[in-house]
Q: What sequence folds into this?
């Protein structure tokens, strides 16, 4: 820290301690003068200084004593300035002046100053009239013409924009000055002047007058480096350089010329103007960087230019990404104002003799490339360096050390993180158990991101609740998932584990997770066997039910209904009736037994005599597809449910036929004018040929006689013959007169008989 600041702090502490003891420090002696530009009767103005405790109110008064021992004063309150009226003193006479201060801690008096009122005239500051660059010369006006006095002595001071310290010279009674010191090209020089008259005090300093010297071509080389972010070994980098000093620029820098060489020996030249950066050039007060990646480049060079020339190109070799050579340890000490880096001499490096210089850099984590970055080049004999600047609290800064060889190749030696101030860290973002055994478990967590650590992580603290066990795991590694194995745990027991990060400021928030250790292997196998047996017993009934359902469905196509009726063979044994078995609708009670018979056969054939009630002649109309001819066929009439109802229907039809056709004598006659039979008879009545076959098989020549008293009905008729109500319904829908005729020679067969009646060959084969 600067010794001046230490002195000021010491004085302030002394004044406070004295004030606390009950005394007040004396003010400084007053500085008095009479301003010019006013007539006789001017007042005397006095100013003074006083170091006091700002918490204590101090009242001041200005006192004077004339040559005639007249003492008087004027109160100024808390102001550090006052004046003596013209009526209280005489010109060209002595006057004693002092200041008194009074506070609650007491009073104090400044030293007494004796003044000659004739020598207190203070002229106004001079005003510059002209200047020139070559030679560098300035001129100003005389300030003593108004009070009609001769010019006394003048002082001149100057500085340039590089050196901020003033250089002061006394030149006597002159109104012009020529700078004889070496002049730097392209710099701005500042001048100030003050003068006094023949009698009196010197004026205040004049205002600043600036002169820019002539420009020349810039000199020297630029300091060029690369910013690769965090970590410093990234391959995606920006080339960055420091602005050349004003003494080297020799004028105003207009832009930069950048050469980029690729790994395939191709060179690209960029000329970027400061006035028009085109989003490529980004500059701040001290640095500039090119907003373009160096990932595919092998080298780069930069040159600055002004209106009169350019600097030589500064070369930067871009090394291939490699491992960090951590042979050298780095020590970092920093606060909010400075950062100090020190390291040991790398005598163990194999190429130590080729080292030309060191480069020490720092990068603030979380900043973009080109921001929060600085570097310093030092001689290879140095082992420490200090950065001056503003370093934020709780923000990580990565400090890296590089070596630059004599061939301009650079090598990354080591890196470390530093903090200007440490805070409480954030909580761990992820914490879980990745494996569990009977007596141990493996924990896994994700490290806290750099921007949220708020300080250097000393270690991660892991605690097992209920076990009073605490484990500290190093927090040195910044990247990657971290793991830790808990051992000596109890079998088949629940545990709750917590983790928190610890910095120099203390521990952060805790994150917890829980798990249950496994049972021993033999108990686990036994438990699995019990579980398997339970599941087997639970699922076995369901499996059996599913099997029965599947078996039933697989046999559905081969299931038949075995029906029994007295003295009637089962027509379902015939494959002819399988397609229509669902159409059977018989109100007579049946006994059905489900059987499995893939290929049913008719082993016993019982022939039942079927008596035809009468023979009727069938006529066809002329518009039928078949020839309109009459044929005699014997149609056997039976009844499915009630034979009496069917006989009444037939007799009713015959009466209607005889009343409609008077020329008919018997059943053997035919007429071409006879109307066509009904659609029902066409489809469902058996043909004469089929009845002859059935009668022949029974050993009879004719269709047989009918008896109204016959009660026995075949199973076929009961199954398939329509009822009287059905016949009337079909006959009424057709709207035709029906008549029944029979002919033994009739060969036409109805659709019903073709579809559903068994043929003679089927019966013989059976």
A:
């Amino acid at each position: 820290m600067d010794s001046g600041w230490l002195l000021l702090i010491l004085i302030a502490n002394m004044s406070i301690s004295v004030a606390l003891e009950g005394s007040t420090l004396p003010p400084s002696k007053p500085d008095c003068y009479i301003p010019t530009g006013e007539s006789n009767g001017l007042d005397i103005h006095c100013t003074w200084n006083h170091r006091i405790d700002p918490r204590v109110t101090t009242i001041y008064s200005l006192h004077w004593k004339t040559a005639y021992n007249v003492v008087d004063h004027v109160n100024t309150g808390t102001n550090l300035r006052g004046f003596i009226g013209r009526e209280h003193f005489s010109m060209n006479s002595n006057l004693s002046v002092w200041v008194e201060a009074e506070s609650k801690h007491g009073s104090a008096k400044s030293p007494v100053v004796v003044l000659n009122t004739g020598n207190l005239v203070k002229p106004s500051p001079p005003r510059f009239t002209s200047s020139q660059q070559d030679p560098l010369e300035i001129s100003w006006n005389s300030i003593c013409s108004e009070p009609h006095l001769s010019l006394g002595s003048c002082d001149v001071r100057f500085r340039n924009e590089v050196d901020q310290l003033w250089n002061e010279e006394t030149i006597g009674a002159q109104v012009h000055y020529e700078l004889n010191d070496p002049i730097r090209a392209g710099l701005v020089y500042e001048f100030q002047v003050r003068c006094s008259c023949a009698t009196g005090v010197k004026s205040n300093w004049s205002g600043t007058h600036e002169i820019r010297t002539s420009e020349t071509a810039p000199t020297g080389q630029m300091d060029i480096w690369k910013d690769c972010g965090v970590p410093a070994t990234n391959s995606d980098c920006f080339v960055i350089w420091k602005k050349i000093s004003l003494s080297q620029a020799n004028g105003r820098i207009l832009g930069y010329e950048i050469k980029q060489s690729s790994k395939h020996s191709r060179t690209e030249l960029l000329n970027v103007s400061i006035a028009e950066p085109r989003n490529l050039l980004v500059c701040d007060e001290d640095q500039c960087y090119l907003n373009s990646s160096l990932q595919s480049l092998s080298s780069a060079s930069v040159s600055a230019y002004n209106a009169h020339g350019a600097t030589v190109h500064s070369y930067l070799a871009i090394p291939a990404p490699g491992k960090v050579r951590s042979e050298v340890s780095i020590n970092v000490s920093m606060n909010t104002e400075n950062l100090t880096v020190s390291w040991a001499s790398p005598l163990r490096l194999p190429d130590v003799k080729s080292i030309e210089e060191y480069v020490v850099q720092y990068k603030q984590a979380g900043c973009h490339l080109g921001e929060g970055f600085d570097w310093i080049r030092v001689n290879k004999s140095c082992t420490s360096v200090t950065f001056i600047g503003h370093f934020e609290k709780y923000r990580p800064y990565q400090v890296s050390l590089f070596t630059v060889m004599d061939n301009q190749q650079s090598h990354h030696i080591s890196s470390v993180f530093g903090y200007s101030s440490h805070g409480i860290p954030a909580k761990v973002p992820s914490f879980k158990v990745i494996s569990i055994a009977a007596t141990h478990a493996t924990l896994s967590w994700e490290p806290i991101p750099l921007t949220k650590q708020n300080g250097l992580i000393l270690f991660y603290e892991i605690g097992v609740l209920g076990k009073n066990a605490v484990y500290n795991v190093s927090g040195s590694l910044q990247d990657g998932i971290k793991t830790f194995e808990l051992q000596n745990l109890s079998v088949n027991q629940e545990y709750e584990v917590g983790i928190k990060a610890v910095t120099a400021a203390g521990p952060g928030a805790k994150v917890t997770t829980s798990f249950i250790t496994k049972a021993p292997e033999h108990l686990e196998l036994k438990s699995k066997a019990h579980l398997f047996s339970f599941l087997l017993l639970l699922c076995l009934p369901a499996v059996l039910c599913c099997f029965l359902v599947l078996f039933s469905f697989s046999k559905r196509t081969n299931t038949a209904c075995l029906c029994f009726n007295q003295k009637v063979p089962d027509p379902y044994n015939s494959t002819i009736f399988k397609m229509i078995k669902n159409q059977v609708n018989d109100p007579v009670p049946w006994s059905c037994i489900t059987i499995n018979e893939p290929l049913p056969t008719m082993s016993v054939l019982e022939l039942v005599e079927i008596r035809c009630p009468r023979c009727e002649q069938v006529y066809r109309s002329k518009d039928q597809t078949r020839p309109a001819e009459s044929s005699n066929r014997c149609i056997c009439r039976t009844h499915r449910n009630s034979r009496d109802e069917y006989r009444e229907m037939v007799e009713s039809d015959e009466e209607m036929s005889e009343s409609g056709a008077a020329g008919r004598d018997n059943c053997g006659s035919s007429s071409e004018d006879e109307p066509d039979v009904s659609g029902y008879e066409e489809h469902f009545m058996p043909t004469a040929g089929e009845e002859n076959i059935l009668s022949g098989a029974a050993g009879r020549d004719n269709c047989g006689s009918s008896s109204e008293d016959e009660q026995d009905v075949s199973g076929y008729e009961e199954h398939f013959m329509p009822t009287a109500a059905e016949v009337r319904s079909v006959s009424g829908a057709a709207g035709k007169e029906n008549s029944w005729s029979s002919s033994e020679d009739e060969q036409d067969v109805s659709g019903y008989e073709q579809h559903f009646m068994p043929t003679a060959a089927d019966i013989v084969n059976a």
